[in-house]
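Quick one: co-fold with AR6.
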Amino acid sequence: MKIQNIEIIIKIGDITDENVDVIVNAANNSLLGGGGVDGAIHKRAGASVLEQCKKHGGCATGDAKITTAGNLLCKYIIHTVGPIYGRHGGLESLLLYNCYINSLKLADEYSLKTISFSAISTGVYGYPVEETLPIIYKAIKDFSAKNNNIQEIRFVLFDKEKYKLYNSYFNAILDKN
Ligand code: AR6
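Sure, here it is.
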């Protein structure tokens, strides 16, 4: 499937195994690591990534910061901070949109071609996956009008349920367009 010239791939897997230019971490405002995908990434990437995160001095919700990838196969990690569902007075969807578009813009600025996203905010932060999908789609569509370098976007889902939801949403919406 494609959105403009960008290939969209949806897969089940562990994002720390991804051999792409950049993976996107679902971090928290401190950027100092945590549980979930953030914990898995820091554990395998190693201390050099934590050091770079410390130098960034945190990250606002919806923003994105980049580091190299330490021991991982990918070249870079983009750390973005998703909204906590129901905790931002109705701004949750905008903040999640910002996570995706800011991550894509940052990857593009670094001339990166392939990017793998985790399902930001859909774990501990409680955002229902179904509600995230139109937001993700809009961010990619808006970004694609200004894209220079990104050729492939992957969504790496940890479980079959989320994988199925992504697949049916993107198949349906991309068929219509
Ligand atoms: N590869 C791919 N996806 C994963 C992996 C993995 N190795 N591990 C978990 N997931 P979460 P959030 C999925 O909770 O909701 C952290 O403590 C998981 O199944 O990691 O944005 C941070 O430090 C879910 O679908 O991120 C923050 O404090 C998705 O990744 C907070 O959690 C995101 O779940 C951020 O919460």
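If it helps, The radius of gyration is 15 Å.
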